[in-house]
């Protein structure tokens, strides 16, 4: 298999999920997978390494990190890994099945005519399942808040299921991106917008994780609320 598409999956204690996720990803699309593991105590990295040397040899890769360093830096490390190789489309994807692999073909197809494709919960046809009302309110409110301040038309700024064309990541100064969580997703999309890239949203239904513990926290969400102003005030330096 000589694919030009890479799916980046950050992991921390995701062995239970990754066992089921990898077959579903490979069944859905012609992709390679890079797992960026933050020294998971449950042995996620060791398990992925076994698979990469066995049944998934040549299409599964592992990038080990020294500890739990954050979602944003995991993706940045993955982006740099992809840019050092010949991948043309790079997809962000959670390990917990909240991002359904069945949408991978749609993300890749949409990237034929868009530079950055967002799997969106808040466009017609999109949605969320198994979320309490207050979490829906926080998520939608956060996206509205950010897009109002930043002057964007994107409806789902905090989502993490997205496909970048290589040119987008190559144009962004990845070393200057320091954020985690919600703010990381906002910042990457905003930077792509400031560079003039075409952004498109396609509908997805987001499912709450069924195993493991969410890595998102109130602190990370509050960080996003304050840091969007940093983006707005510093936009001229980001162009």
Describe, in plain words, how this protein is organized in 3D.
- With 239 residues, the chain is of the alpha/beta class.
- It has one domain: Spore Coat Polysaccharide Biosynthesis Protein SpsA, Chain A.
- It is 42% helix and 18% strand.
- The chain is built from nine helices and nine strands.
- The strands form two sheets. Strands 3-2-1-4-7-5-8 form a seven-stranded mixed beta sheet, with helices on both faces. A two-stranded parallel sheet has the order 6-9.
- Helix 2 (44-52) links the parallel strand 2 (32-37) and strand 3.
- Helix 5 runs parallel beside helix 8 and helix 7 (181-194) runs parallel beside helix 8.
- It starts with a strand and ends with a helix.
């Amino acid at each position: 298999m000589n694919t030009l598409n890479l799916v980046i999956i950050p992991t921390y204690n995701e062995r239970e999920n990754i066992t089921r996720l990898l077959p579903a990803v490979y069944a859905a699309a012609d992709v390679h997978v890079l797992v960026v593991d933050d020294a998971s105590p449950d042995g996620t990295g060791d398990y992925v390494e076994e698979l990469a040397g066995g049944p998934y040899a040549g299409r599964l890769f592992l990038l080990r990190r020294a500890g739990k360093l954050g979602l944003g830096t995991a993706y940045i490390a993955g982006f740099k890994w992809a840019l050092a190789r010949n991948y043309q489309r790079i997809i962000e994807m959670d390990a917990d099945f909240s991002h359904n692999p069945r949408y991978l073909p749609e993300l890749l197809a949409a990237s034929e005519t868009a530079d950055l494709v967002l799997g969106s919960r808040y466009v017609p046809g999109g949605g969320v399942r198994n979320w309490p009302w207050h979490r829906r309110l926080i998520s939608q409110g956060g996206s509205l808040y950010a897009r109002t301040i930043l002057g964007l038309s994107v409806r789902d700024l905090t989502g993490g299921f997205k496909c970048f064309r290589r040119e987008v990541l190559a144009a962004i100064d990845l070393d200057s991106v320091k954020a985690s969580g919600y703010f990381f997703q906002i910042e990457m999309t905003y930077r792509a917008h400031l560079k003039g890239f075409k952004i498109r949203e396609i509908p997805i239904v987001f499912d709450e994780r069924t195993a493991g513990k969410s890595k998102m926290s109130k602190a990370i969400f509050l960080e996003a609320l304050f840091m969007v102003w940093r983006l707005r005030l510093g936009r001229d330096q980001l162009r």
